[in-house]
Amino acid sequence: MSRPPAGAAVHRADVTEAIRAAVLQELATGGYARVSMEAVARRAGVGKAAIYRRWPSKLALIGDVIGDVLVQPGPPTGHDLQTDLRSLMESFAGLLATPDLPAIMADLASEALRNGDLSERITATVGTPFGQRTLEVVDRAVARGELSADLHREAALDLTVSCLYWRVVVRRSTLEPADLDRFVATVTAGLKAL
Amino acid sequence: MSRPPAGAAVHRADVTEAIRAAVLQELATGGYARVSMEAVARRAGVGKAAIYRRWPSKLALIGDVIGDVLVQPGPPTGHDLQTDLRSLMESFAGLLATPDLPAIMADLASEALRNGDLSERITATVGTPFGQRTLEVVDRAVARGELSADLHREAALDLTVSCLYWRVVVRRSTLEPADLDRFVATVTAGLKAL
Amino acid sequence: MSRPPAGAAVHRADVTEAIRAAVLQELATGGYARVSMEAVARRAGVGKAAIYRRWPSKLALIGDVIGDVLVQPGPPTGHDLQTDLRSLMESFAGLLATPDLPAIMADLASEALRNGDLSERITATVGTPFGQRTLEVVDRAVARGELSADLHREAALDLTVSCLYWRVVVRRSTLEPADLDRFVATVTAGLKAL
Amino acid sequence: MSRPPAGAAVHRADVTEAIRAAVLQELATGGYARVSMEAVARRAGVGKAAIYRRWPSKLALIGDVIGDVLVQPGPPTGHDLQTDLRSLMESFAGLLATPDLPAIMADLASEALRNGDLSERITATVGTPFGQRTLEVVDRAVARGELSADLHREAALDLTVSCLYWRVVVRRSTLEPADLDRFVATVTAGLKAL
DNA sequence: TTCTAATCGAGACGGTACGTCCCGTCTTGCC
DNA sequence: GGCAAGACGGGACGTACCGTCTCGATTAGAA
Lengths: 194, 194, 194, 194
Prior knowledge:
elongated, 194 residues, 0% strand
C-alpha cells in the first residue's frame, strides 16, 4: 500500500489546554512533588498517553507549564533608578504573593540544580528574560549617571530581588508594602556600592 | 500472670548512627528526591521499621540529618561590621559550596512552605540560630555606631546572605572569592541604608 | 463548487487483501494472542480504520481470515467407508500440521464458547460444512450396508477426527502417518459399534 | 549492622488463598485472556506485588490455580473394561459440565501450544496423571484378556475422552447421559480394534 | 539472675504511580 | 465517500517505593 504520505494527525489544542490547566490545579493542590501524571490525566479527562505524546517527562511538562506563569512585565519605563527598580521588585513581589508560587519556585530551583535539561529550559524561559530586564534597568541608571560605569553587572543580578525571595521562600515570612519601600532603598544603596 | 511492668528497651545508638550515615551517603548519590527509605535501610543494614521508629517520615529523617550538616559557626568575634559580616557570609558560602547542599536547601525550603511541622523544625534548628547570629553582628555594629540605631532589624535578616543563595540556588551560577568581596561591600552599604 | 453528488465509495479490494495477508503473516509470527491490530495495520500499510470498517473486532477479523485457511476438500468419492474416512481424516490431519493452526483452532474454540456471535459464525463457516461432509461419508456407508441403518448420526460427528485433535491440540504430541492408519481402523470399528 | 540472618518473612497463607479464589472467579467471568492481574488483585483485596511475589507471571499463576481444579479421581476399581472406562469418561464428563471449565481448558490448550513452560507444567500436573490412569485401565483390560496384548498404548490415550471433549468444546453441543452410554460402547469397540 | 518487653533485621502487606503498549474510536486532510 | 496517519480515552502491564505490620531472635533494664 505504498502511497504518498497522506493525512496528518496533530495534537489537539483543547486537549493540550486541558492538560496545562490540570497541571496548574495539581500544582496548587500539593506542589511539584505531589503532582502525578495519573492525577493530571484524571483531572484533565485525558489519557496518560496524550500527555507523554506532548512532553517526555513530568519535569518537562511542569517546567513548560510554569513558564507561562512566570511571565514578567515589559521593559522599564521610569525616569530614575528608584522607579525602575521598584517596578521590577513589585512585579516579583507579586509572584511571591501568588498562592503556591513560592513553593513551586523553590521546587523548580532544586530540580533544576539536578537536572540540566530543566535548568536550561528555565534559564531560557525565565532566567534570561528576567536578567535582561534587570540589566536594562541598571544600564539606564548608568547612562543617567546614577550608577558607576564600572559596576559589576553580573553581581547586580544577584542583588535586586534576592532579598524578597529569601524573605518569603527561605524565611517563610510575609512581605508587606512597607517592606518593599525599605528594600528598594537598600538595594539602591547596594547597587551604588557595587 | 499479672506481674509488675517490667524492663524497657531503647533505640540502639549504633543503629541510629548507621542510618544517619546511610542517609548522607544516599544524599550524595542522587540528591534528596532520589533518597528512598528502602535504599537507606539496605545501605545501613537495618530494617525499615528501625527508621520509622525514630523519624515519622522521610522528610523528617532527611531534615534532621541535614540539621547536623547545617551547623553554623559560633558568635561573631571581629572588631568591625565588615569582618563580622564577612565571616557570616563566608560560612554560608561554604555551605553553598558543599555538594548537593544547595539542592537540599531548596528542597527543604519548598517542603517547609507546605508542611508546618517541618517549617517549625527547620526554623528552630537552623533559622533561629542563624538569625540570632546575624542580629548579634548587627547589634554589635549598632553599638559601635557603624549602623543606625533605628535600623529595621527584621529586614537586616533578609539582606546578609540572600544574594549568595540567589546566585547559587536560583541562578545556578558559581560563587568566586572575588564575588564574596563585592557582596560583603554591597551588603554593608545596604545595611547602612536600612 | 457544487458538484454532482459524486459516487459512493466502496472498500478497496487491494486494501482488503493487504489486510488479510498481514493477518496471516502476523499469525505466523507469534500466534493468535500476539496479533495486534496495530501491527496488522502497520504491516499492511493501512490505517486502523480501514480494518475496523471491514471487521468489527480483532476476533472477527482473525476468525474470518482463518475461515479461508480451514477450507475443506470436496465431497467423498471413495467406494468404501475406509477410503472416505481416511480422506476426511487426512485432510484434517493436514490442518493440524499447519503451523500455528492448532493453537488458532484452540483459541477460536475457547472464544466461541464465550461469544455467541463468533460461535454461530464458526459453526456456519466451518462446523456445518465439515459436519455435512462427515455425514455424507456415514450415509454412503449406511447405503452400502457397511454401517447400521439405525446408527446415531449425531454421535458419529464426534468420533471421526476428535482423536486427531486431542492428540495434537490437547496432548501436544505429533501425528505420524502410521498413527493415521491406526486411527482410521479404530474409528471405523467405533462407528460400526454405534 | 552485620548480624546473623535473623527473622524471616513468609507469604501469608490467607493472602495466597484469596488470590487463588480471585483467579478462579475471574476465569469464570471472562476466561483466561480476560484475566488481568489488576482485576485479580482488586478482587482479592490484595496488592499486585503480593501476586508477583508468588508467581512470576500471569501464566504461571493461572496454570497453577487451574491445576487444583482439574484434579481427577483415583485409580480404576472395576472388574471389566466397560466399568473402568465408564468411570474414567464419567469423571471427565463431569469436568466438561463444570461451568466455564471447557473454555478454560481450551484456553490453556492454546496457550500451552505456544508456551513451553506452561505446556510442561500442565503436562506434569494434569496430563501425565490422567494418562497414567487411562493406561492402568487399559493394562488391566489387557491382563484380563479383554484387549489385545499388542495394542498401541499411546494411541489408546487419544481415544478415551477425545470424543467428549470434541462434542463439548469444539462442537459446543451438550453431553447427555445417553450419549455417554453410546460413547463408552464405541470407545470400547475402538480400543479392541487397536 | 531471671524475666519481660521493646528493639532488632527481614521482608510481606495494601497501595499509588511510573512510563509503555495496545485496544477500538475519532479526526484531519488528501485522493 | 474511502483512505493513511495517527491522536484520542481507557486500561493493563510489571517495577519501584511508600509507610505499616508481622515475624522470631536479640538485648538489656527491673525485679
